[in-house]
């Protein structure tokens, strides 16, 4: 487990860490000594990252995760002040690869970064994933969260871990909802908004979420099945097209 010191979170005004191009090679080679040389500052304090290099920093952390080198990941997290959005995408990568130890490291980092003294995280912050245009859209669907992704991939252990950390899948609002969040999402990108609703329902309809989040999984499955049937009459995209939103599949597995 990483031991983060409170002093390590101090910022130095006006100083930002520039992305060293050779960092990618050091991560790819697993060269820890070179990584230290590139990232360590003389005073040991973390620097804010240059916003114009956001994608480069994301790719560095994501590559370390895909390479599966936990020592490199630990030291990247120790030496670089990644922001919430960058950690969020890294969580998606770790979940996608079913790397539970890396998921734990990233969740710990979120707790430290947000100054959380208990085991919960700011759940609503994950709705910002829909508006993060820098996220790798070729790999991850719009608005997907670590929990909905873990649910869709049937990763029971990671789903359980995330839920113990306070992550939930809120029920989507009605398509006609006029609350600020829904209005902003529709105006931002109607297609992404629609796809995010579908992905949310896929998470709600998954075996891990139904069994872990509900005392009566069968009853919850039947209620959700009925809701999806009603939605399919008003929103064509909810017509049964795959088993993850198929009411028959949804209720059938609970009888097994």
From TrEMBL:
Signal keyword on record: no
Record GO cellular component, one term: cation channel complex
GO molecular function, one term: inositol 1,4,5 trisphosphate binding
Transient receptor ion channel domain segment(s): 177-239
Transmembrane segment boundaries: none
Pfam families linked: Ank, TRP_2
InterPro entries xrefs: Ankyrin_rpt, Ankyrin_rpt-contain_sf, TRP_dom, TRPC_channel
Record's keyword terms, sorted: Ion channel, Ion transport, Repeat, Transport
GO biological process, one term: regulation of cytosolic calcium ion concentration
Protein name in UniProt: Transient receptor ion channel domain-containing protein
Source organism: Chiloscyllium punctatum
């Amino acid at each position: 487990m990483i031991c983060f010191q409170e002093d390590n979170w101090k910022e130095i005004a006006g100083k930002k860490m520039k992305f060293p191009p050779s960092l990618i090679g050091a991560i790819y080679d697993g060269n820890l000594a070179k990584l230290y040389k590139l990232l360590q500052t003389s005073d040991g304090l973390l620097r804010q990252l240059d916003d114009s290099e956001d994608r480069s920093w994301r790719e560095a952390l994501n590559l370390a995760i895909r390479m599966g080198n936990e020592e490199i990941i630990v030291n990247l997290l120790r030496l670089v002040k990644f922001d919430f959005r960058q950690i969020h995408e890294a969580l998606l990568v770790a979940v996608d690869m079913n790397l539970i130890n890396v998921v734990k490291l990233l969740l710990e980092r979120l707790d430290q970064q947000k100054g959380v003294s208990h085991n919960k995280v700011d759940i609503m912050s994950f709705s910002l994933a829909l508006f993060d245009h820098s996220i790798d859209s070729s790999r991850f669907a719009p608005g997907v969260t670590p929990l909905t992704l873990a649910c869709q991939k049937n990763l029971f252990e990671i789903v359980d871990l995330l839920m113990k950390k306070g992550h939930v899948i809120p029920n989507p609002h009605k398509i006609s909802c006029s609350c600020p969040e829904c209005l902003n999402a529709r105006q931002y990108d109607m297609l992404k908004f629609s796809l995010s609703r579908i992905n949310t329902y896929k998470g709600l309809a998954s075996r891990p979420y139904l069994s872990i989040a509900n005392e009566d999984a069968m009853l919850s499955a039947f209620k959700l099945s009925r809701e999806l049937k009603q939605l399919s009459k008003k929103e064509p995209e909810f017509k049964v097209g795959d088993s993850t939103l198929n009411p028959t599949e949804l209720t059938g597995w609970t009888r097994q």
